[in-house]
Amino acid sequence: MKNYSQFDTEDFVQDPYFRKWVLGKLPPGDSFWPTWQSAHPGRQEQLEEARSLVVALQPDDRPADPDEVRLAVQDIMNDLDDRRRPFPLLRIAAGLLLLAGLGWWVWTALLPPGSREEVNRSALPRKIQLADGTRVTLSPNSRLKISEHYGQKKREVSLTGEAFFDVVRNPEKPFLVYAGNLVTKVLGTSFTIRATDDRVSVAVRTGKVTVYRTEKKPGSALSEEMILLPNQQAVMEKASLVKTLVEEPVLLESPVERFAETPVNEVFHRLEKAYGIRILFEEDQLKDCNFTATFTRESLFDKLSFVCETIQARYEVVDGQIVIDGAKCR
Amino acid sequence: MQRTHTQEYPHQANEAVLWKAFKEGDRAAFAELVELYYPQLLNYGVRFQRDREFVKDCLHDLLLELWNRRQRLDDVHVVKVYLLKSLRRKVLKESTRLKWFREAHEVSDDYAFEVQFAIETYLISREVQHEDLVRLRTRLERLTKRQREAIYLRFYQDLDYDAIAGVMSIQVHSAVNLVYEALKLLRRNWFLSLLIWILPLNP
Fold first, then answer.
1. What is the CATH number of the domain that holds A267?
2. Which fold has domain B12-102?
3. Distances (CA, A) of A82 to A102, A162, A317, B68
4. Is residue A143 less than 8 Å (CB to CB) from chain B?
5. How much is the ipTM here?
6. How many angstroms separate the CA atoms of A27 and A12, rounded?
7. What DSSP character marks residue A207?
8. Distance from CA of A58 to the nearest CA of B (A)
9. Shortest CA distance from A52: residue in chain B
10. Which residue range or ranges hold the FecR protein domain (chain A) (predicted)?
11. Same structural domain for residues A11 and A88?
């Protein structure tokens, strides 16, 4: 046993047994430290100070999710034999192929292509098709890099400028776009990304998109994720990430054109459905309001303004949804 | 105030037994080693590279390489130190490649190590006004990433100074210095003993 009565604060802090006690890592039956503490009332101050130091210097984060760890370990165990000797075999095969005098172009045909870069310097958008059939429309003055490992485990590209992506669905291989300090992750969907030096936006046309930062925000241990649905948009500007709606929401299903003395609650419900955007309002508050109009090709926001003007209400876009604030009609 | 902790550090003898069995091709022993160290390795890796999936890919490859090379491995005394060191090297190497791909500009060989200690979270979340605390906060902000990493390895991964030096590829006396500087910073602040009642213990 160490001579703990000679210990100073510093020594306690450096002592593994002491640290385990402070952090509650000793087995429940171990009462050495409480006993020692009461036997040495004169060392109270050093002990307290040492405890504070140990606690203060613990990293601030959450423990790993047991399921996450279990799955990862399973994955590793499953792959143990698969990859036993791929490399020597591949090398021998390579040697043989070369010796056989087959041209190097055979290689380029057999092996996945290296990282490639597409730049659009023209004045018109350029369409690019990726190996898996995913279509990218690259705007002028924009650049797309395609990972050399594209399609192996993931489908990774990086973008500067603007592009529209129509991604072929493949849940096994997520499609990731790196732009500025945002990562956009999808399984199969269509969306537009605009990335300039100080602003990145991701606007969703169809499907579901996950967006997260590549840089850590001070004070948070985990990266924040944002899930976007059609007509929603994420905007990253001055280090803040905000969910909003796209500038010009598109109709997801055939429009409702005609309203005649229709309860306004129903009008909102039908707009909500047509654009796939959540509209929040007080059903009870607006139950006596009616609305009559015929819409042609107005934008969603024009339609909303029109309805709101009629019933003396206001609307706001909050967190990718529309919030109606109105008074009772009579 | 006894808290149960899910991950108890293994006895070193047990670790050596597992390592020996693993080297002889015992899958169960390997699985046990992996399970034992995975959470700690992941926790370390994400501090260099915050893309969690990326770190998990690195770990996956690292552990498969370990299995494939098992016959050529030395008898390491401390398995954990060996694994932490290998992971560090791998994540930093792969990150440089990844960075080149994700960002157009050239990358330096500088690395990041992100960790926030409980005391910092406390000081930030409370927006402390007391001038001693404000001073402490500014001094903590000035801790270098090397200091942070050394403190993290010492107080979270529970490594001794030889091991820290090994993992970080530095001299033992440098490892000692890195940790001592930080301790000195906090040491003279008597009010810390008041904080213990407010700071939550690490879950």
1. 3.55.50.30
2. Rna Polymerase Sigma Factor; Chain: A (1.10.1740)
3. 28, 40, 52, 11
4. yes
5. 0.76
6. 19
7. S
8. 5
9. B196
10. 126-209
11. no
